[in-house]
Amino acid sequence: MSPSERLARFRAWLLAPRILLALAVGLLFLLMAASFVAAPWDLPGCPGDGGGLCDVPITPSSPAGEAGSVTGSLFGEYAILVLVIGLVLASCMIGGVYLAKVEGGRGP
After folding, report:
1. Distance, CA of 50 to CA of 108 (rounded, Å)
2. Less Cβ around it within 10 Å: N or C end of the chain?
3. Sequence ranges of the domains in the chain
């Protein structure tokens, strides 16, 4: 095999769709990493801590203190409703899979 044929085969291999896809994903990853590094991450500190980071409670410490927790900030007074909707959607998905299997489709 001559060097020009080898070069042509290498060029065809290099321009294959999977190689271009891998290069595009790698470039996207580098672009995202650079944007995360360049973002200003100046987080506000606790008022009495001297500028250190605060511990944010996940669940409220008291029923009236829902605004200071992550759950209270995201869902407010509808946190239980979000869980119920999640359970209903999960059961609907399981039922849909069951019905698809029962209808006679050949599965693996």
Report:
1. 61
2. C
3. 1-41, 45-108
